[in-house]
Design goal:
- With 100 residues, the chain is mostly helical.
- The chain contains four helices and no strands.
- 5% of the residues are buried.
């Protein structure tokens, strides 16, 4: 076996191991700790809401990229995200009640 082949095989196995490890962690979070995923989604929604509330070209571009069917309608996108935030908060409260 050549040295470069051994290095290549080691890198491939390491990368494959990392990918499998990532999916195992994701599966564990999904099954055992679903509230953690909801908390992350809630933080991401808050970040999007902040971007849209600042207004300007960046908000319009962000809205257009996120929801192309609405053609950059910032107000409609903001209203949607505010509703989604409330749903995620309710989902998080439900998970907290189930954990007790």
């Amino acid at each position: 076996m050549n040295t470069t082949e051994a290095v290549r095989e080691t890198l491939v196995l390491s990368l494959l191991g990392l990918i499998i490890f990532y999916f195992i962690i994701l599966l564990y979070d999904t099954i055992a700790r679903p509230w953690r995923l909801v908390e992350e989604q809630l933080m991401e929604i808050e970040m999007h809401i902040e971007t849209l509330r600042k207004g300007g070209r960046r908000a319009k571009f962000h809205s257009w990229i996120s929801m192309p069917a609405w053609r950059g309608d910032v107000e409609k996108h903001l209203k949607y995200l505010l509703g989604l935030r409330e749903l995620k908060k309710a989902e998080l409260e439900l998970f907290e009640k189930l954990r007790r």
